[in-house]
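Journal club prep — side note

Before the paper discussion, L.F. wants everyone to see what a predicted structure for a comparable chain looks like in token form. Sequence:
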Amino acid sequence: MEAFKCKINKEYDMPVIKVSHLSKVFGEHEVLKDIDFNTNCKDVICIIGASGSGKSTLLRCINMLEAPTSGEIYHNNNNIMDKQNKITTYRSKVGMVFQSFNLFNNMTVLENCMVGVIKVLKKDKKYAKEISLKYLEKVGMGLYLNAKPKQLSGGQKQRVAIARALAMEPEVLLFDEPTSALDPEMVGEVLKVMRELAKDGMTMIIVTHEMAFARDVSTRTIFMENGVIVENDIPEIIFNNPSNPRTREFLKRFMDS
């Protein structure tokens, strides 16, 4: 597979995404509390934690699907909270893959991949088809170009969703529990694609309950609880010798297996 290249930041010590003092409040409930972390070029950040810990909300804030209550998010040192920066342009560079696929049911597999390239990137149909074919082949869906989503398995739908995100040629990909809606036998095919993306140098932030995947693939693992980053370290530390007792308790079943 072709390796991904960092389009702007060529140095690993230059954050592609920087989250600074980020908070999110829904009503009287503070879902995210003073979140800080960096994502560098070719990083694979896996965010783990119990349901309700704020993981998905954090990802939605990074993509600006939810407006943060306070704090800053920087993309290549540009503050995306600044109203002068266009959110649509930012989202074209920071793609997102959802747990529920979010494919257009009235479109074919190929059309699903082409539509964003044409509508958002303003590319012509010839280019959109070429780039879509490239990434559908990459995720193993090149034989299903004319199929509609209802004809596909959950794993196939998610692979199309990944190809659609890749067709935008983003600098960063966000994954919100991409395997949680899949039957167990379909999980492996999606994780295989994601492992290949990591191997090829795609910068990713992944919310996941797949602990073995997070341990094996991440460059850094973040454990969240009650809207707070409890621990942020390399996977060798998080999964083998975490410093925080809450991390140890959360991972106890996994570590003992």
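L.F.'s comment for the group: The chain has a mean pLDDT of 93. Keep this in mind when we get to the figures.
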